Amino acid sequence: MLSAQQLEAYITQNLACDYIKVLGDDGTHFEAIVVSPEFVGKNMVKQHQLVYAALGERMKAEIHALSMKTFTPEAWLKLKGND
């Protein structure tokens, strides 16, 4: 069974992340927040595709569901500034 920490490691091995947090406790369903400079200039669909690409075949085998929120570093700073 896959852990949230393993999923974080898989993503960061293949995608530059300024911040990442993955939650999930059943081994197949996860929620993630991913902040990456690689998202700059890309719409949300393209950002999500980069995360899926970072996970590769794991999305077809080990991960049943991944809900994610993706942000550029600038968008993340603006969001966190409003907290």
From TrEMBL:
InterPro entries: BolA, BolA-like_sf, BolA/IbaG_stress_morph_reg. Belongs to the BolA/IbaG family. It comes from the Bacteria. It holds the Pfam family BolA. SUPFAM superfamilies: BolA-like. PANTHER family: BOLA TRANSCRIPTION REGULATOR, BOLA-LIKE PROTEIN 1. This is BolA family transcriptional regulator. It comes from Methylotenera mobilis.
